[in-house]
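PROTEIN DESIGN WORKSHEET
SECTION A - STRUCTURE
LENGTH: 343
TOKENS:
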């Protein structure tokens, strides 16, 4: 017998691992007096997203593809998976007594859980299924979530006021991408961490610790079919990228699921843009549950996010489903964008 044959390779199962729940408990030690309720809250999100991913993974085998037959408050046709994902999040989060208010892309009004209780400290806002147009064609979709503290002071009995807070007041935010694997990416304001769902054990395991967005990438991501209806400076900026103005050759990538387009931008660098268009003069993406969590993650990873007018996280929201342009990405691309487009 040769030495090679007797070498024992350690089993992957015996290597150290950290679940997202363990990680959250570790992160909580940063906050003196934390009671563990925040990790209980987040476990509602992880449970719901495991249920959603199970459904997504079996789409095509069960009757979950296609339209549900209703139109949501955005005037968009709801897909069956939009409705299922929304129900799972509502169900899993409504049992968390630390949550006072829930708001979702799919619900016109916020859902009040127990916002008059002193135990209710947080509002959670989410897009249950992002990238609906990709469901039927087996392309990555996602879930985004944003968590804010209950507001203090006058007028805070109104559930809407819990939700209408600028993104700079988020205490945690993140997303789950249902891609080639299922991955949870989140931040509580101390860096960004990614966890991959191990389907064999049903747990999110730390796979991407302290993610940093590259200072510059080589992809730009925008729906170029609308280019003629972007404000003209956007076109000039895209020409600048294509013309080598940033010192490298750019390629384009556009999936049409913001979570997936952003996830690539986070890991590989570059820029994602959803500018104002003729059809959506204020942008298409929703501030509270799409732009804010993505902007929070981007900044925590060393990137930037702007509406073209101001930092996304500083926008004072006026309505729950308000839209915004979103331009998010690496330092180099964003600095040039701000100089060329924001002026
Ligand atoms: P949702 O499926 O939650 O309505 O979001 C779809 C959004 C977003 O995911 C994506 O970036 C954008 O729509 C794509 O829009 P276009 O098809 O106009 O490019
Ligand atoms: Mn969406
Ligand atoms: Mn959605």
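SECTION B - SEQUENCE
RESIDUE ASSIGNMENT:
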């Amino acid at each position: 017998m040769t030495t090679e044959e007797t070498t024992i390779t350690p089993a992957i199962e015996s290597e150290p691992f950290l679940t997202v729940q363990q990680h959250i408990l570790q992160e909580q030690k940063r906050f003196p007096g934390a009671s563990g309720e925040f990790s209980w809250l987040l476990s509602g999100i992880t449970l719901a997203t495991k249920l959603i991913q199970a459904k997504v993974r079996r789409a095509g085998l069960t009757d979950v593809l296609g339209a549900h037959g209703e139109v949501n408050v955005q005037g968009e046709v709801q897909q069956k998976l939009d409705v299922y994902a929304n129900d799972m999040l509502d169900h899993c989060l409504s049992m968390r007594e630390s949550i006072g208010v829930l708001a979702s892309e799919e619900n016109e009004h916020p859902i009040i859980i127990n916002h008059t209780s002193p135990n209710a400290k947080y509002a959670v806002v989410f897009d249950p299924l992002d990238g609906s147009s990709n469901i039927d064609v087996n392309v990555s979709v996602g879930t985004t979530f944003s968590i804010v503290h209950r507001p203090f002071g006058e007028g805070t009995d109104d559930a809407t006021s819990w939700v209408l807070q600028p993104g700079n007041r988020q205490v945690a935010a993140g997303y789950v991408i249902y891609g080639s694997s299922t991955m949870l990416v989140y931040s509580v304001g101390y860096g960004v961490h990614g966890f991959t769902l191990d389907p064999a054990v049903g747990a999110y395991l730390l796979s991407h610790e302290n993610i940093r967005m590259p200072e510059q990438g080589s992809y730009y991501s925008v729906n170029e079919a609308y280019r003629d209806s972007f404000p003209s400076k956007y076109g000039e900026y895209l020409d600048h990228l294509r013309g080598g103005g940033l010192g490298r050759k750019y390629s384009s990538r556009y999936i049409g699921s913001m979570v997936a387009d952003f996830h690539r931008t986070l890991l590989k660098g570059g820029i994602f843009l959803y500018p104002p268009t003729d059809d959506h003069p204020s942008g298409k993406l929703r501030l509270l549950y799409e732009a804010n969590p993505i902007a929070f993650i981007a900044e925590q990873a060393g990137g930037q996010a702007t509406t073209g007018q101001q930092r996304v996280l500083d926008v004072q929201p006026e309505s729950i489903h308000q839209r915004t342009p979103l331009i998010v990405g690496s330092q180099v691309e964003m600095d040039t964008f701000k100089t060329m487009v924001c002026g």
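SECTION C - NOTES
The pocket of manganese (II) ion (ligand 2) is lined by residues 127, 130, 258, 290 (CB under 6 Å).
The mean pLDDT is 91.
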